[in-house]
Amino acid sequence: MMVVMRLWRPGRLAVDVAVSVAAALVTAAGPWDRVAAWLPRGVIVPLALGQGLLLLARRRAPMAVLAATTPLGVFMLAVGYPAVPAVFATGCAAYALAVYGRRAGGAELAGTLRGAAAVLLAAVAVAVAALAPGARSQPGAWGALTIGALIAASWVLGYALRTRRDYVAELRDRAARLEAEEGERAARAVVDERLRIARELHDVIGHSISLIAIQSEAAARSARSNPDAVPAFLSRISAASRQALAEMRGVLAVLRPDATVLSTTGELSPQPGLEQVGELVASLRAGGLETRLEVEPMDLPPGIALAVYRIVQQSLTNVLKHAGADAKASVTITRSGGTVRVSVHDDGAGPSGPASSTAHGIVGMRERAAAYGGTLRTGARPGGGFEVEASIPLPEQEAP
Q: What is the sign, positive or negative, of the torsion defined by CA atoms of 199, 204, 208, 209?
């Protein structure tokens, strides 16, 4: 029922009726006295009406319409009716076969070939009928060929219009798909940016809060035994807080519409890199975590340098949280061929086995390494403590 309603919706029905009426009128417009004497003159009326009524089904059954209108046109030509009115409906059917026939013909190429073969047979039949002894006009071989060519040309015109319409529809579909894909890419970019901001905030806040907590505990312990040391602890807490706020402003500035302007006016500081690892370790030493640092001088791309810094920062934050009060840490950053290797380990009371793969800090470090094609390995050290090993390949132009 839905298919029938789609085929016969009001707009198409009006067009189909108009085409049918026009075909009937054109067929009946020829001189009726040109037909054979043994036929009544009024026979043209039912023939014209039959041609017009058949064209009503040209969308649903174009092959059948062509098969029915061709014998009628051939008959009218053979009994002496003028060529153009006689074969007008057949030409309309050939056009409709090209436009609508491929919908129900199986494979598209096979349906097209079947339609072309049917139109060729119709054109040959019309040309032969034009040469019949009863044909009054007697157009000759060239005229008969022209009449058959008109039928074939109707099919070619319909095929060209249908091909163009399909091409335009394909372009529209492709444009719609590209627009949808662009929307998906934009959505993925938003998600990726949110994840990046979340990782940055986790690293900044986790490290700073851990450092502040340790300094606060140390200040509380020293309040009675060594009051003179309390101001130094408070000063370190203040410095850590200010540094955390500054880094948070830098991370969250990308969400502000004027972030680009701010970056050019100097309000935003550059993202930390390899040069800031020393400052990070120095702040931890001042907070009581004995840390050994070995950094091989090298020039790294900004993205990789930031990833190295964040991996070291998160690793040392984990040392502060889990290794214990008397733990010692070691940070080593070297370059081996085209790879940067980061090693952070401690001798504290770390886990006895591999670290949980769902821990936010370790997940963030692993994602940072993977973003540049690197790997991250974490777990307990054979001699006690915990270790983090990261390997990040450098771009070819950066390799020595």
A: negative
